[in-house]
Amino acid sequence: MGRLNFLSVIKPSVGSRVDGYDNALAQTLKGLYKAEQIHRRGPWKSRESLELATLQWVNWFNNIRLLESIGYIPPAEAEAYYWWELTQKAETAHPT
Q1: What is the four-CA torsion angle of 36, 38, 39, 42, rounded to 10 degrees?
Q2: Which of 3, 31, 55, 61 has the least CB density, counted as fewest CB within 10 Å?
Q3: Is 15:7 a contact under the CB 8 Å cutoff?
Q4: Dihedrals φ, ψ of 94, to 5°?
Q5: Residues in Cβ contact with 3 at an 8 Å cutoff, skipping those fewer than 6 apart
Q6: 59-87 per-position pLDDT tens digit
Q7: Is 57 within 8 Å of 44 (Cβ atoms)?
Q8: Using one digit for the tens of pLDDT, what is the confidence trace for 12-49?
């Protein structure tokens, strides 16, 4: 993995609390899910088959999908690296 400093790339939310901007990401993700999973692969035979397909899609979205903007790594790996980097900085600042 490259030495990209994830802490310097993170940007705060632009919306104020409880307005339309806070919900924009959730609505975008919901639309993506419906387009990629629900409509493309339906109709569904049962609720259970839809639930299983949803779990598989969420796993792919978080753990397998590669994002160009974060160095062609899965989001879960980027998050794990972020928390590892934060821990390293804290340990460096306050060694035990």
Answers
A1: 120
A2: 3
A3: no
A4: -135, 75
A5: none
A6: 999 999 999 999 999 999 999 999 999 99
A7: no
A8: 555 556 555 568 888 899 999 999 999 999 899 999 99
